[in-house]
């Protein structure tokens, strides 16, 4: 007769939290006050408010109105925007500050290198992006999420022609985001491009450079309010129109 052997194996006790948890890092920055007159309290946002009745039915016309108001309030470079992209399949996210150059009836347009840059690689694997505008002087923020589409070379040429000649040369010369051996390497590339287009006023837009449009599916307008009880309204694409909802701060 076979007898079952008694199982004498004992699972080790799970490690204690003290053995697996690293000590908290020393705080290099903690709760900065952002220029508050009282160093013990954070800055309060008091410049405005936002209600559903004041919003346009379209987020694009609402953005246009806010952008004009930012200009009128002398916001420094209100076209400055953070562009965030993500690579698939890793899901790694990257962000950088760029300039909005156009707003049209389809969306928000920026220009860049779409061959060698990190954003180009991200968009090639995941043609979606997010934009964030922050206008400190009026205590407003706008967030945009949507699909990305390339502009045609003809469309890109129109904006490219408005750039200073040095910037047009630079677009040809710079393999954006690629490693350089030194500044002199970049300067040599610029010299060669200048020679190539010497005496040419109408420089063609590089095939690897141009505009992309973020076609919005979600747009949020944020107005700072006292005690961090901000006004937030989100537009979400719904058929041919937009659903607008107030969000909790």
Question: Any guess at the CATH architecture of the domain at 59-153 and 210-246?
Answer: Roll
Strand content: 25-35%
Q: What is the highest CATH level, the class of the domain at 59-153 and 210-246?
A: Mainly Beta
Residue stretches low in confidence (pLDDT < 50, at least 5 long) are: 1-10
Residue share in helix: 10-25%
The Cα radius of gyration reads 26 Å
What name does the CATH topology of the domain at 59-153 and 210-246 carry? Pnp Oxidase, Chain A
Q: Based on helices, strands and strand pairing, what is the structural class?
A: alpha+beta
Return the average pLDDT rounded to an integer. 91
Number of helices: 6
CATH superfamily of the domain at 59-153 and 210-246: Electron Transport, Fmn-binding Protein, Chain A
**How many strands in all?**
9
SSE pattern: HHEEEEHEEHHHEEE
Give the overall silhouette: globular
Instruction: Please give the alpha-carbon distance between the first and last residues.
Output: 72 Å
* Major sheet characteristics: 9 strands, antiparallel
